[in-house]
Amino acid sequence: MNADLSLYLVTDPALCGARGVVETVRQAVDGGVRIVQLRDKAATDAEIVDQLVDLSHAIDGRALLVVNDRLDAAIAARERGARVDGVHLGQGDASVLRAREALGPDAVIGLTANSPAHLEAVLALPPGTVDHLGVGVIRPTLTKPDHPPALGIEGFRAFAAASPLPCVAIGGVGIDDTEALREAGAAGLAVVSALCAADDPRREAAQFRRRWHAGAAPRILSIAGSDPSGGAGIQADLKSIAANGGYGMAVITALTAQNTEGVRGVHVPPTDFLQAQLEAVSDDITLDAVKIGMLADAEVIRTVVAWLDVVRPPVVVLDPVMVATSGDRLLDPEAEGELRRLLRHADLITPNLAELAVLAGRVPTDWPDALAAAEELSADVGAMVLVKGGHLPGDEAPDALIDAPRGRRQEFAGARITTRNTHGTGCSLSSALATRLAKGEDAPTAVAGARAWLRESLREGEALRVGRGQGPISHFAGLWARGGLDTRPTAAVVEADWWRQISATRTAIDELPFIRALADGTLAREPFLFYLAQDALYLRDYARVLAEAARLASTSEEQAFWANSAHGSIVGELELHAAWLTPSQGVGAATFSARPAPATTAYLDHLRSVAFGGDYEELIAAVLPCFWLYTDLGRRLHAGEFGAYARDPRHPYASWLATYADAAFEEATRRAIEFVATAAAAAEPEKRGRMLRAFEVSSAHELAFFAAPLEGHPVV
Questions:
Q1: Residue 427 bears catalytic tag
Q2: Which of 110, 156, 421, 510 is spaced 20 to 30 A from 544 at the CA atom?
Q3: What value does the mean pLDDT take over residues 317-341?
């Protein structure tokens, strides 16, 4: 069985204390526990059976129930009508093969494993015998004093990587381990003391669940009809799920022929195909929430109910599509009766006023009476009800969240938005709610967030200009406005694009008379020394710019790199320049005695303006061409691309040309490219654009710098 293992409670009667195991489990399941394992080493088999019966009633289908070790107790509890979903076995307990045979193919069977030998034994079992492994302990724990040596996070990571089955981390697991264990490959967290001993198990479980889902897109299944015009049904659901941060899937209950002006026809596929769709999704994908919309008839509803009984997703939001805009009832009496059974599987029901009237069995007279009817419905079926006031007369369109079993009521005020683009608002809101609840938001927070998103999408709907009738809302209006449509490149893509972007500059450098003459040895000494003198002036201030990059860097690695590059510029490189310019004096005032050429001044002015503007990313983009263009040129000079003489030791500038292909400088260039490309890939489009402009301007200055020596000293 493809069970949701994300939050797995293992009971401990001593830690539950006076509150007791049953009440602890009830509260923890309210908070989001997905699977409960009854573990009570001191209890007799008869006592375990009684506890399983009690826990089955307390859980009431909201989570899976398994028992530790006691296979015979699980069978006996089933015979008494308890819903026991499976067993968790240790290496020395009842055979997993016997457990699978006794409990059937849909049972959940877990097995303790923590060593290579255990993993080998699992691999030897027939496929489908075991569903998941309980792997640990992660840390030493008092709840299991006879535990094996602790694996730690990294030990768990190695085990999970080698396992063909989902691995649940167990043993000393606390809430601050959530992210690390999920990143290490855990399919879920098995928690004992952190929930059993908690003052408020519901709140603590909700915290675990929120942290488990943080940063991940929840997986939301919509079970609804299709709207080919895209405004309602599964099309609206999938857009809503995506707009609210989820990954959407769809099982189609009915095909409609409709547009913004109305429905022209409905085709209901056979329910065996509906069943096949549902099983295809849930057999493979762990669902974080299900949204249910249009269910055309009683047989369709029964099929969905039966599937929910088996899969039991953690969140079920039901949008009861029962009444057409015209006021006509869409379901016959038999289907309405089946729908009432479905209500008891829902966590949240989202009726409009007409649907609330059908479900409550009376027509509310006003908004306070609608709230009273919602209270009655919530108390009857045990689910929260979001009653929607969009069909009320007047300038206000309030909603209210009613949770009668827990004595909660919260109203949400809102001025009516005047628009014709209301097609699919019910579908869209319920899907948004399913997504936000699956992310771990509590119900009031989810409703507030979903309403804010829906109201924004309503306001922008007319801009879509879709259809002549009741148009759709604009599901992605906020994302388009605030997030834009630009893709985020990888560092490798940035590197390739930027290099291609300066291809014309690179070609122009290759074709300069200075470069050609330097390569073939015909360059006169005077322009060569002019180039070196200007380069010495450049390097002195370039080192200051690199030092500023080191000061602004956010990581020690980058800080050290740019600082070392600054040091190399004023020590290693300037010494090479002095060997030509002032060989008898070394590096000194005479090395920098030349008058700056216009190209040198312009280049340094550009670097200084970027450096002392305080933007680290733009700065490192501006200094990159001095690394990249020189390394590329040196590599190709020594490869003979500009003629074989450039590689000849008898070349008049052989010692200088050797510096162009220095291996250490090539490695430094590779690191500089990586730092800049990584920063550009992570930057927002506007900043990435500024970085590219700084890079391009510096590349153009490199071209001018190479051209300058022969502008006043032509080749003879």
A1: yes
A2: 510
A3: 79
Pick from 629, 494, 489, 627: nearest CA to 561: 627
Q: Which of 96, 17, 89, 31 is nearest to 59 (CA)?
A: 31
- Cα 237 to the chain's mean position, in Å? 19
Chain centroid to CA 145: 37
Mean pLDDT of 639-665: 82
> Contact, 230 vs 259, CB < 8 A?
no
Amino acid sitting at position 601: T
CA distance 153 to 142: 19
In angstroms, the CA 688 to CA 93 distance is 60
Q: Over the stretch 610-651, which tens digit does the pLDDT of each residue have?
A: 998 879 999 999 999 999 999 999 888 888 888 888 888 888
Backbone angles phi, psi at 640, to 5 degrees: 85, 15
**Confidence at residue 146, expressed as pLDDT on a 0 to 100 scale:** 62
Starting at the edge strand that comes first in sequence, how are the strands of the sheet with 219-226 ordered?
A: 262-267, 247-259, 219-226, 289-292, 316-318, 348-349, 384-388, 399-403, 408-412
Q: Is the pLDDT of residue 328 over 60?
A: no
Does the active-site annotation cover 16? no
411/393 Cα distance (integer angstroms): 17
Task: Tell me the binding residues.
Answer: 37-41, 68-69, 93, 112, 141-144, 172, 192-193
- Select from 235, 245, 635 the least CA-distant residue to 453: 245
Length of the chain: 716
* 327 in active site: no
DSSP letter for 363, please. -
Q: Is 626 a catalytic residue?
A: no
CB 256 within 8 A of CB 266: yes
What is the per-residue pLDDT for 143? 60
Chain position carrying tokens 């509260």: 27
Q: Which pLDDT does position 714 carry in this prediction?
A: 44
- How far is the C-alpha of 560 from the C-alpha of 471, rounded, in Å? 58
Name the phi and psi angles at 442, rounded to 5.
Answer: -75, 165
Percentage with pLDDT > 70 across the chain:
95
Catalytic residue among 24, 286, 303, 425: 425
Q: What is the pLDDT of residues 3-51, one digit of tens each?
A: 899 999 999 999 999 999 999 999 999 999 999 999 999 999 999 999 9
DSSP state of 278: H
For residue 448, how many other CB atoms are within 10 A of its CB? Answer: 16
- For residues 373, 374, 377, 379, the Cα torsion angle rounded to the nearest 10 degrees is -110
pLDDT tens column, 212-270: 988 789 999 999 999 999 999 999 999 999 999 999 999 999 999 999 998 899 999 99
Task: Please confirm, yes or no, whether 631 is among the known catalytic residues.
Answer: no
Q: CB-based contacts of 675: which residues, under 8 Å, 6+ apart? A: 558, 561, 620
233 near 427, Cβ under 8 Å? yes
* pLDDT tens digits along 189-224: 999 999 999 999 999 999 999 999 887 899 999 999
Residue 318, φ and ψ in degrees, nearest 5: -110, 120
Task: Enter the DSSP assignment of 347.
Answer: S
Annotated binding residues for Mg(2+) = 69, 93
Q: 487 in helix, strand or coil?
A: coil
Please give the model's pTM, rounded to 2 decimal places: 0.78
Using the predicted structure, report yes or no on whether residue 535 has a pLDDT greater than 90.
no
167 in catalytic set? no
Check if the beta carbon of residue 265 is closer than 8 Å to that of residue 296. no
Question: What separation, in Å, do the N-terminal and C-terminal C-alpha atoms of the chain show?
Answer: 84
- Among the listed residues 427, 471, 600, 669, the single catalytic one is 427
Kindly name the residue from 426, 440, 461, 471 that is annotated as catalytic: 426
SS (H, E, C) 206-246: HHHHHHHHCCCCCEEEEEEEECCCCCCHHHHHHHHHHHCCC
